[in-house]
Amino acid sequence: MNTDLATRLRDHARDAALFPEPGRVLLAVSGGPDSLAMLDLMVRVAPELEIQLAVAHVDHGIADESPDVAEHVLGLAVRYNLPGYLVTLKLGRTASETAARSGRYAALRSMQQRTGSRYLATAHHADDQIETILLRIFRGTGVAGLAGIPDTGPGGLVRPLLPFRKEELADWLAPMHQRLLPHLDPANADMRHDRSWVREELLPLVRSRFGRAVDGWLLDVGRHAAAERHAWSTTLRVVRELDFRSSRGVAEVARAPLLEYDNALSEVLLRALAREVGCVLGPRRAARLWAFAQHASSGRTFDLGQHWVAEIAFGRLRIFKLKKEAGNADHPSVPWGEGDEGWVQWGGWEIRWVHEPAGAPVRDSLVTWVTPGLGEIRSWMPGDRIRPFGGVGRRRVSRVLMEGKIPRSERATYPLVARAGRVIWLPGICRSDAAVPSVGEPAIRLEARDGPAT
Predict the structure, then answer these.
(1) Phi, psi of 231 (to 5 degrees)
(2) Between 380 and which of 272, 282, 315, 397 could a Cys-Cys bridge form, CB atoms 3.0 to 4.6 Å apart?
């Protein structure tokens, strides 16, 4: 057995910072040889990387044998002493490769969220990278597209096996073949699928002419393009006038500087901005987005396709994925304040509390103190009003959110902290004059964080 492969995986994970923080990694295990190799390798390196593992399997409901494969994968999870999770789809025999992929990733993301997993790992390897680069060339991709599959993606997506060739993984798995029993999906040899044709027909033909060196050439193309893609991502961050920000699935920049740049430069920057949240823009869509950025008024949105949206808000251009119309039904109220300390998540926010003597309240801080008692976190509702601390009169919460430069698309998901029907606090925007303790008195300290709990 090539025992060095696990060491190389551990070193790669550290060097590339694949798992920058401890947490659970949900392994997407299809039952094929690549994913089983990933499962075995990750079990070996997990303790040194300070991560915990769980197994996820998606039964697409396409092949007759899929229930048996699902049972086998969940059995392997038990054998490795890991939690195992299954989602069963009913796509049917006629489902396309695209439909299967879309359904699979939706199911995996759902499992990731449901299990509280920080990371989702897939078993893509270097041979997948070669195929991807070729397919993108055929489809007229831009330079950034030639970078192929990145090591990491939005939402904790990780591909730890990208540096390794398929034959290396097969060699690793060989001594365990009878015990792990990998499933060979017949769809992988179906020439109706473009990737299968590239793998089984095109690459052998090209190699017969140029030898295996062609694999290295294509991987080099990917590395050069990845370096350029990284350079544009870095540009967003180092050009201060762009004021780049990325949080909770939204990437945004100041609009005014873009309007001063050359058209080609602005379009490249917009494509780089979209990639920050996982939105892939081709040249045509980037050109249409640039036209929108030049002429749209504040509050306008632009459909980028596949539920991606661009928005002009308060002098900024924002890109995000529109899940559905947000509102109270999507973000029900949650209680806070029980016990000496604790935390809750609401939407993309985290609210923590602890009992301690009160400090001085600040009107627009992300930290405040309240008198002891329980409360709730919810969306704002029509009719909500707040009496600002140190201010005069009661103001509509909708107006305060607008003045706080909260984009229209985010107002329904902005946390409102209340108690007994009274608005206490809009974190970072406005503290009310309700439930304000005197400095030094027993109180509850509330802290709001714009991001998931750890």
Answers:
(1) -65, -40
(2) 397
